[in-house]
Amino acid sequence: MERDDSSPPPGLEKRDWIAGLERGIGVIEAFDDANPRLTASQAGQRTGMTRTAARRYLLTLQHMGYVASDGKLFWLTPRVLRLGQSYLESARLPRIVQPFLQRVAAGTHEIVYLSVMDGDEVVYIARNGPNRSMSTGYVLGARVPAQVTAAGMLMLALRSDAELATWLETHELSVFTSHTIASKDRMRLELARIRTQGWSISEQQLDLNSRGIAVPLRDRRGDLVGALNITMPMGHESSEDAVKRVLPVLRETAQAMRNLI
Fold first, then answer.
1. What is the pLDDT of residues 183-238, one digit of tens each?
2. pTM of the predicted model as reported, rounded to 2 decimal places
3. 233: which strand partners?
């Protein structure tokens, strides 16, 4: 059954609401790693539209160059990357932090990122450091489940009690390695510990060869805008030595940036 577009979301006047834009973006977001190619019917099912409506949006997106088709199946084209690139090129925050990330990377010889939260995922919007042949060498725009990254767990821990309780109640914890925290009780304790100490470390949660350390990045008002995090391979040093080596640098950098954000 097709969803009713007549009512705008809370906080937006009906005269200001363009339901078609929401639906067009929804069609683009219907494609993912599990659904790289979709029929119009499948796209409709994933977006709550009829097959006919989904087909119209797909054909419009095809005309604009964002979608390609063989007549039955549809798939995204590289033009979609322009949407994310526009953010990276126009957003103020990634430009501000880049010189600071460069100094952190030079001082620690590690890869350093600026991460933000989008829903239940961490998105990397700035990066600096050596290129490594390891899965933690995320490209700009990479998205990773928040529950298995140092930056993600830190930003989750700093949510309000009500927001965190809702997240724990509604979110299913995915398991990626034998070290992934799969128990909600254990996750609740870990997030409470992170909130108390004000920084986080995540080891082998997503990848057995990966360690991450993160600190909050706040603006001049004290509001959380993201996290600064370093990723490094496991095995080169102990957890204690890694924290002692990079945590002071991350903290000093985050503090130095506050008046600029």
1. 999 999 999 999 999 999 999 999 999 999 999 999 999 999 999 999 999 888 99
2. 0.77
3. 210
Which residues, listed in sequence order, are joined to residue 144 by a DSSP beta bridge? 122
Report the alpha-carbon distance of residue 194 to residue 191 in Å, rounded. 5
Residue burial 161-184, b: 16+ Cβ < 10 Å; e: rest: eeebeebeeeeeeeebeeebbeee
Give, in degrees to the nearest 5, the angle at Cα 138 between 33 and 152: 85
Alpha helices in the chain (DSSP H): 19-29, 40-47, 51-64, 81-90, 92-108, 150-157, 161-170, 184-197, 239-257
User: Which residue shows structure tokens 């339901």?
Assistant: 19
What is the C-alpha separation between 98 and 109, in angstroms, rounded? 16
pLDDT at 96 over 60: yes
Residue-wise pLDDT for 189-199, tens only, equals 999 999 999 99
Nearest to 113 by CA among 229, 191, 24: 229
How deeply is 33 buried, as exposed, middle or buried, from its count of CB atoms within 10 A (0-12, 13-18, 19+)? exposed
